[in-house]
Description:
Two copies of one chain form a homodimer. Chain A has ten helices and eight strands. By secondary structure, chain A is α/β, with parallel strands linked by helices. Chain A has two domains: 9-159, Rossmann fold, CATH 3.40.50.720; 165-260, Orthogonal Bundle (N-(1-d-carboxylethyl)-l-norvaline Dehydrogenase, domain 2). In chain A, α3 (78-84) links the parallel β4 (68-71) and β5 (91-94). Chain A is elongated and about 65 Å long.
Amino acid sequence: MGEIFDIQTVVVIGSGNVAGHLAKAFREAGRSILQVFSPDTGHASSLAEKVGAEVASRLFAVTKEADLYLLAVPDKKITTVAARLPLVKGIVCHTSGITPLNVLARFENYGVFYPLQTFSKERVPDISQVPFCLEASSDIVYNRLQTLAGKLSQRVYAVDSAQRKNLHLAAVLVNNFPNYLYAEAEGFLKENHLSMKMLLPLMRETVAKIETMPANEAQTGPAMRGDHETIDKHLKMLENKNDLRAVYQILTQQILKKYHE
Amino acid sequence: MGEIFDIQTVVVIGSGNVAGHLAKAFREAGRSILQVFSPDTGHASSLAEKVGAEVASRLFAVTKEADLYLLAVPDKKITTVAARLPLVKGIVCHTSGITPLNVLARFENYGVFYPLQTFSKERVPDISQVPFCLEASSDIVYNRLQTLAGKLSQRVYAVDSAQRKNLHLAAVLVNNFPNYLYAEAEGFLKENHLSMKMLLPLMRETVAKIETMPANEAQTGPAMRGDHETIDKHLKMLENKNDLRAVYQILTQQILKKYHE
């Protein structure tokens, strides 16, 4: 790799949500997906067909001709997959928030292509709104990844392994945990024959506030007000739901502590 | 109250966020705010000035001529305020999610005008997107409240006291608790010189997913995948943050339990 060139050809390793959505996005940005590899050959075939790629039958037999090898596999499999992949000249990237860059150090050119977003199979994400956090083994590799990410999204950030790990943890706090709470609310409402749709404006406003004020100042509700009467009523309503009650209690205690100690 | 008429004149009791935002919304919908009462006379004057109202100096001395008396006061003060308010003919409403309708039963016409939204002083909410949950002492009163709420918002629901209480608890789950988690994430990122802005697309997508799929199916992340290695790394990163670590642990345990037991 001497001259600056655009990444044109991609091999996708993995066939989960991240692999699928990124492969489609690359293809829509005019790149060729040469091959897809996944130990789940059914998933691999299905994804390969959608993006006009071949299926690679074995990891050690993937083509050596691609510009980019995207390892969109579960975090704990990255090291194993990296060890089995041929020593290609193209850029080898993983897509993990929590995994350091240097697990790919056996390759000549490598990087991280981390989409800071939640992907589900059934939902097509707006890739142009996805922040891509990039890290690379050299400036040349970084520039190539940046050019590619820039074709997908306007939100491209240089983020090193230490910072990416912090973003990943924060993402759990603002996505995984709120989504769990949404699911609990949805279940609770369903039992009471109420629709989650009624809460959507509130959920949207909860996020929209953070665009204009610090979350600390956006806090409202009984715990923030120190309204123990309401808290006790809620705990009573959750009498037969031990798990949700425990979650309600600890979060309420933390908010009380934060605003009233 | 015999004939159907629009509510034209309002007395606002309270001067907090809900009182302020609703008073302004009524005024923008062409209604007159006759008086504002609040034990905090500074707040009362400030709000009264903004909405072209008088300040009522005492609760028992408010005008008896208004069509609506809006009690937008802290939940635990509703009963006291209701007991001190003159026995007016106009509709007396509280705005509380958790308080039953019947605490206002000493009045001839009464109801609940509960906005299912989070209000902060510094932020002007889009009232047209606020769901209003209404309950009333009679059909005539209900129709009048519905007509008024319909001038503010297209989302007007008939919700009885038992159901309103359930919505209020669900609102804590989808607003207060996620906002607390946002604040923790914001603090954590700040310590690491990272901006919350990078997480906003993820936060928006977290809510947007719920518009198209059940929250149970939208769940992603290490706990949902049963990825204990990542969970352990996160817990290690939170070693010196006992409170946040405790919250991380219980929410992770709940998600693990839900998807892996």
